[in-house]
Design brief:
This protein has helices at 34-39, 120-130; strands spanning 2-7, 13-19, 29-31, 43-44, 50-55, 61-64, 72-76, 82-89, 92-98, 111-113, 135-139. By secondary structure, the chain is mostly beta strands. Strands 4-9-8-7-6 form a five-stranded antiparallel sheet, with no helix packed on it. A hairpin with a 5-residue loop joins strand 1 (2-7) and strand 2.
Length: 141
């Protein structure tokens, strides 16, 4: 397993993940929704990997919903960077990472995906298949 670390610019939201995937061969998913297009976001996730999110100050975390409003988009209010997207199904957290928060990591070219064409149920099926499903979120108190 390889461990990769990243964060928002100010470090309020940190992340690390364990993966066996060769990231140089991964085409991150560039979503066609208005939010992702505007912010030039592409996503990485590994349903066989482990994702750890650490939050230093919860009061500086902004959570929005876009599109079908099923997923939560987590960003930092202090540095204004979007870090990850998540949703909960049957008490299990699923998540995908904004690759912009992994500046030291090299990926292949992003590929366009079109979730706007999917129903709410199809989105959930896609996310449960592709996203990290072993997600741990900790907060410093």
């Amino acid at each position: 397993m390889t461990v990769i670390k990243g964060s928002c610019s100010c470090g309020n939201i940190g992340l690390s993940f364990e993966t066996r995937v060769d990231l140089r061969r991964v085409n991150p998913r560039a979503c066609d929704c208005d939010f992702c297009t505007l912010n030039k976001v592409s996503y990485f996730s590994d349903n066989q990997g482990v994702l750890h999110i650490s939050i230093k100050d919860r009061s500086k975390v902004n959570i929005d919903r876009h599109g079908s409003e099923q997923a939560q988009f987590h960003g930092c209010n202090f540095c204004s960077e979007f870090v990850f997207v998540s949703f909960i199904l049957r008490n299990q957290i699923y998540a995908a990472i904004n690759t912009q928060c992994l500046p030291q990591t090299t990926f292949a070219e992003p590929m366009l995906v079109q979730p706007k064409l999917l129903s709410k149920q199809q989105k959930l099926q896609r996310w449960t298949k592709l996203w990290f499903n072993n997600v741990k979120i900790t907060e410093n108190l």
